Please model this.
Amino acid sequence: MLACRCYRRLIAAASGSVPSCKKFLVAHSHNPQRSCMSKRQRPTMPQAAASQAAAGEHKHTNRLAKEQSPYLLQHAHNPVEWYPWGEEAFEAARQQDKPIFLSVGYATCHWCHVMEHESFESEETAAIMNKHFINIKVDREERPDVDRVYMTFVQALTGGGGWPMSVWLTPGELKPFYGGTYYPGVDQYGMPSFPTILRRIAQLWSTKREDLEEQASTIMGQLEEFTSSPPASPGTAAAAAAAVDPKQLLAAVRGCAKSLMKGYDPKLGGFGGPPKFPRPSEINLLLRAATEQAAIGGKGGGKVGSMAGSKALSAQQLLQASLHSLQVMAAGGMYDQLGGGFHRYR
Model:
């Protein structure tokens, strides 16, 4: 069963800037004033696209064609029966008694476009979505409030986040019960395909709905608890950090470094399998671990490619893995030859 886990990561994921989930869900209907763009700032639909829509040149046209967000307009001719975030979608979910599939992204998001091409433009996948779910598309730049609440859930569930964000909600109270980010159109990257996920969730909603709703209520209770707590003051945070046993802190850094190095790619650099994303925090962690190891004179053992062994990692191994990953990035298409630094995508 698709089970929720890692709730304790909410402590790190939630912050004082996240609104109370209960208050958010009470006031969930569309409010143009809450958009980060005013009506004057919002771009209008390009004339060419408007002409095409008027001429009926598209095979499919959904409710997003009436929106002003460039990102939503990009999905206006998907075979998916998209709704914008608002009461019409919520009422449809209640009337049809279907769970909601919420997809959040933005116009310049690379993987958002990949998922659209692989899944949302597919007639077969759209048929599954339309049959079993009420599908809502949200532009995170237009509705950062919606994005913030459900991203907190995804980060707690998976330990990470990003866009496109994919979340499944109960039809009545909009409580999340499962979520993730990008799902491929077919099984690849060691990930189940989006159609596989859709069918599995539809099956569980049909056979174990009460379990999913109970799970959603538990999650929302924990989200409410953590997001409604006031943020710790700098003094409190400093005192808490000072109270940590240095030996425990060192052990945590070592443990994280060892875990990270198990996924190190000694040939192409980076960590884990494709698709790889540059994460500065991972390099920073290895450099800190290398500094700590050098300070105590740790020599470790084994070659870089055998980090998963039981021997302690040496400072040289940690440093080499960090530098090698950066060097491979610098040799690739994501390095900015003119301005320096790295792009997130090639």
Notes: Strands lie at 82-84, 100-105, 134-139, 165-169, 176-180.
